[in-house]
Amino acid sequence: xxxxxxxxxxxxxxxxxxxxxxxxxxxxxxxxxxxxxxxxxxxxxxxxxxxxxxxxxxxxxxxxxxxxxxxxxxxxxxxxxxxx
Length: 84
Fold this sequence. Notes:
This protein is mainly alpha-helical and 84 residues long.
């Protein structure tokens, strides 16, 4: 197919707790989407989010460890795109 770019889709596996998986499926249903579409949406925005959060190069272990309770990530209320 000359002149057309064919994007290959890569599959990844992410291990999460059963509770996080349940919560994510519930969110996907709430937004009339899929877990895959939500994860892809977030991964596309991850580089900018890491810079904005000043995530340390080398990972969280490269920074000093927090002394207070862990803070949970906040997901933007924007609706992810629906899968094709």
